[in-house]
Amino acid sequence: MQRPSSVPSRPPAGASSEHTSQKPVILSRNQQDSVGTFWDMVAVRLVFTMVCVAAGYHFRPFSVSKEYGSLAGLFFALAVILFEVRLRKASLRRLIGAVIGSILGILGAYLSSLILTHTSMPESTRSFFSLAIFLVMFYIGLILGANKGDMLNLQAFGGVFGSERSTKHSLKILDTSVIIDGRVADIADAQFLDGTVIIPQFVLRELQLVADSADPLKRQRGRRGLEVLQRIQKMAHLDVQIAEDDFQQVAEVDMKLIELAKRYDAKIVTNDFNLNKVATLQGIEIMNVNQLANALKPVVLPGEAMRVFILREGKEYNQGVAYLDDGTMVVVDGARKMINKTVDIIVTSVHQTTAGKMIFGRYDERGEQTPRVAGLPSSEAQTGPRAMEANAGGERPPRPLYPESGRS
Hints:
3 domains, single chain, 16 helices, Rossmann fold, five-stranded parallel β-sheet
């Protein structure tokens, strides 16, 4: 999809007011649902901060004044809150690995301190080395346990931790091109797309520029993209979130998508060929809608029969061209006279090209001229025109080449 290089001129007042009335509706449900949780967390953190400040004011750590004790309690509360925010983004495997690594580090430090008690070094030096070994072992165990936590198999615990879903595989970032395309809504409606869907703020701005364009075609595409977002955010099995992250130093929207995917360790849902190649080279997982559509095309083998509608004549002599519902071209030999008609053909070969798949078939005109109705006597089968009209849904067949029995 071509990215708008500059801000297009605004549409007429009527069209702009109509579009403006639609925009505030997008993704408002998810924001309203998260208000209660947000204020609950603010209240809990505020109470915790007040308790820490009161404790510092009362106990006066390091024999400082009450004012400095309150300030120390405030800094301690802020450090704990920042640490809690970071822990919320960690997976359960990393948390379990960090806990196990910390316990092993503390155990190793304790055993080392037992060895130091049997030495002749002074008490102050022995205390320093014991504290230093404890901090080093605890830090190394925490970091290594967190990094190696992804190797844990939580299913071995009998399903106790099996309900956690991997955050990496549940975050999907939607590109502007796939939103305007619209097929992603049908894919999500069929529940082939689940988890958390992230819509970046810069993608919404780009979509708004397209919807506010003076070009009627671009304006229609932009509004269709807004309608697709409204449809997606109403699906109960999806968690739609707006990412406020913006990368001011990056100018192109495609590169911003790649940076955002790296930050959240997420996949990008797109149908942009260039973005697909660039993101793949940088190690980003891509969900390409066009590749999914090609994978879902029906498999046709030579010798199978299929019914197609001959749309136009082909390039070669006596050829007709038809198209399947997914856009696959079907070239039919001997069907030039059957244009604008539905015929049964036999598949002769299937060719896969860079542009897609092509199917070649053969139309047997002789088989269509002498049909037999199953279950009827030969005398009734020979009164073929009426039977063929009934089977063909009212379409009159060509006049038979032989006189009908019973007529002079």
